[in-house]
Structure formats: structure tokens, C-alpha cells
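Sample entry was shown:

___
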Amino acid sequence: MGDFHQNGIVTTLHNLADRATEDLEYDLLHFSHFRPMGLILPSLFSELEGEALPNIIKHLKEVPYLSEIVIGLDRADRDEYFHTEQFFAQLPQHHRVLWHDGPRLMALDKELQALSVAPREMGKGRNVWYCMGYMLATGKSESIALHDCDILTYDRSLLARLLYPVAHPQFNYEFCKGYYARVAAGKINGRVSRLLVTPLLRALKRVLGPIEYLDFMDSFRYPLAGEFSFRKDVLTDIRIPSDWGLEIGVLSEMYRNYSNNRLCQVDIADIYDHKHQDLSLTDEDNGLSKMSIDIAKALFRKLATNGTVFSPETFRSVKATYYRIALDFVETYNNDAIMNGLKLDIHQEEKAVEMFAQNIITAGQQFLEVPMERPFIPSWNRVVSAMPDVYDRLIAAVEADRAEFVADQ
């Protein structure tokens, strides 16, 4: 049971009454006549063979209000693409698989690369970006949700609560961020959000002084949640990062493009668990180490676009301030865990803080050394300007892949 407190400058929609999923879906089915709804599922092929995705599909089969489901498929060869089509064929909703490694989409990507309007690296950001473009191309959905395919504790109520704020005809929200307690199997998880993002935001405010953007980011209860929803118009002008700064980058774009009263966050789950990244203490190119560097750089870049001037001395001050705040958080979370009968390894928590502190310096150095780094993928408005028929060609490529699959059956 959540509280009703409104913290920060972004509206929070709580779970105050455990309203039945069927009641929410009844409303959403009615809303769908005015605002058709869609879902984006960015997926690796390996996730089809895991525990989470089959359960997600089992729940999605019972969802009555979706007009469209778009699956972004990464790291799959031809046989694996065919297997993916068979896997998702059980969905009763209209759905399409975007085979990102297939020759047709790769050929289109090569043309967009030549025009300098394509993602520069593989990853979730690229996957999501192409799915967003496909949603714009079909025009089937007015309200769209996105969530990951590795949620072990998935229930269709998560999707209902995530879509509700942007689907309700009387609400004016353009974007909604999901949040939840990262508690599962008797443990408090979510180290990057708990021990990096929040204390880093607090440290930046202490070092740099009052900045509305930092207050905005600090208003989100779980800023790294991979679940969010939006109105279709949001997709045309958003620029998303291709690295681990995706979630921070999306929030930053919402801050740039919309007033705060058009944005909200919603409690979507009591228990949430998904696959966990390695800490990667000795490898800054992988796991939580790379994630922490990308996230820190995303924050530094956004602050710089708002006029903040950084220097090596600034980053040293931020790192020292962060370290003290983060260690205090370790004690806070340990007390919270003890009171709730949960497990928390203080030694591992402090090792994570030490690594994050070092990576703040690393991120700062990279930020200063490569001032022309452009991790953001261009907006679809710009892509259409560069290639006016891109939507038609995107649909044609996806349909041609599907026709080949159907012909092979």
C-alpha cells in the first residue's frame, strides 16, 4: 500500500486501493475507442528461451484493449527470426516483429547511416528507436506503452496501470513513468538507482546550487525504470540515447519538450524483479560499471546544454560529495531492510558505492575529453526530412520479412 505524498515537481499517481485489474481494463477498453493503444516490446532472441518472456506473453494474451504490439528483435539469425514469429503467433492482438538483424532492415539502416540519421551503435536504444518509428508509420496507436521482456514478476495489471494515465481522455498527460519498489526474493535490489542516481543528483544540487532540471530528475521515485508510456506525438520529436543512458535521456527529453503538468509517474507493481547485471568492478566497458558511466555522462551532458560549466575540479567536488551522501544511503537502506526483514549486504553495497564514485570521475574525464560526442539518435521528424518515404519503406521491409516467414510455413 503506497502513501499519497506528492514529492518534487512531477505528479505521482499512487496505488491507494489495489483496484482490480478487471476494473482498470474495463475503463481502458472504453478509452481504446477514443485512443487506440499499443505496446512496444524490445527483446533479445535469448529472452524467448528465458523464464520471463513466456509468462509475459501468457498475460498479454488476456489483455483486451491493445490494438497493436510491436516486437523489436535483436541478435537473431534467419532461423531465430522464424522461431520468433512462431513464438509470438499466439498473441490474439495485431502484432509485428521488427527483425533488426535481417537484410531488409539492415539495408534501410545503411541508407539512413549514409544520411547521418541512424543509430550509431547496437543496443536497446536502437531497438526502441526503430519500434517507435514503426509505430509512427502504422498510425494504429494513440497511446503507447513500453516495457522490457525480462520482468520475472510480470502481471498484466502492470501494463494497465502504466497505460491508464496517457489513455484516459480527461487526463492531459503526454508521458508517464512507471515506478515500483525493487524488492524481490527477500532482497532490496536496484543498486544503480539507489546508490548512484539519487545520491549523485543530491550531490550535484549541493555542488552546483539550485537547478530546476535536477529537482525534476530527483522527483522520480525510480528514474531507471524501463517502463513508460506516452502519447504518439511524443515520438516525433524525441531524441533518445543509444547507450545505457536511455532512461535518463528520455526523462531529459521530456523535461525539454513539455511542461511538468503534462508528465507523471505511476505505481505499477508491488513486487518487481528482472535479470541483474554484473557489478563489473574491474571492467568499465561492461555491466553496472559501464551503465554508471553512461548515466553520469547523460546527466553531465544535459546540465551542460542548460549552461553549466564543468571542470576537473568540479567533478572532484561532485565525487567527494556523492561519496559521503551515498554511504549515508547505505546505512539508511540497511535500516529499512532490517525493519522489513529483508537482506542487504553492506559490504557489497559499499563496494558498489566505491566503484560508482570512481566512475563519476571517469565519466567526467570522458565528457571533457570528447566534447563532440553525440550519443543521441536523431528524432523521427529529422529522419522524415532526410528520407520522406522512410515510413513506407519501414513498413514494406517488415511486411516482406513476414511474408517470407508465412511462405515458409
The beta strands are 11-13, 37-44, 66-74, 95-99, 143-146, 175-180, 183-184, 187-188, 228-231, 263-269. The longest strand covers residues 66-74. The CA atoms of residues 35 and 152 lie 29 Å apart. The chain has a mean pLDDT of 93.
